[in-house]
Design a protein that fits this description.
The chain has helices at about 1-10, 10-40, 45-55, 60-80, 80-90, 90-95, 100-115, 120-140. The protein is built from eight helices and no strands. The chain has one domain. The model has no long low-confidence stretch (mean pLDDT about 85). With about 150 residues, the chain is mostly helical. Helix 2 crosses helix 3, helix 4 (about 60-80) crosses helix 7 and helix 4 runs antiparallel to helix 8 (about 120-140).
């Protein structure tokens, strides 16, 4: 499927997709590592922050934020290209056959959301700024006031 996608998508769109996949892999790694740290423990802000620090990998956490921005900016460009959405929809079946149906749904949902924005830069900047501040605070042994779990 990888060669098919690379052949069908323009370079900038393929790079955005590649970054989205890298972001997904990195996020899954962190989710699994955090879940392992938090298994069987009552969770509150302090416990979560300690588990976050125990997982470590601050540079990768910051890379995760950078990838989010890259994917967001790429999507912001991609959604302005008329044939991209049609191409994305054409990839539904190959994605499903390759076991990437969830990623396909994620990409289509993101595409739709970005199509309705009037430029994503302020939104992406706000997320990156807040995430970076949280990461820095947690690694400095702080316990930021995180929203309650739902």
């Amino acid at each position: 499927m990888y060669p098919t996608i690379k052949r069908l998508l323009p370079k900038f769109a393929f790079e955005t997709l590649s970054n989205a996949l890298a972001l997904d892999v990195l996020s899954e790694e962190f989710d699994q590592a955090l879940a392992t740290q938090l298994r069987g423990v009552p969770i509150n802000n302090a416990v979560y922050c300690e588990a976050f620090r125990a997982v470590g990998r601050k540079a990768d956490r910051l890379r995760q934020v950078a990838l989010m921005q890259d994917v967001g900016h790429g999507l912001d460009l991609v959604v302005k290209k008329p044939l991209i959405y049609s191409t994305l929809k054409m990839l539904r079946r190959p994605s499903k056959l390759a076991g990437l149906a969830e990623m396909q749904q994620f990409l289509e949902a993101g595409f739709s959301a970005f199509r309705h924005m009037k430029g994503a830069t302020p939104f992406l900047h706000t997320i990156a700024e807040r995430e970076t501040a949280l990461i820095d605070a947690i690694f400095l042994r702080g316990v930021p006031n995180l929203p309650p779990a739902k």
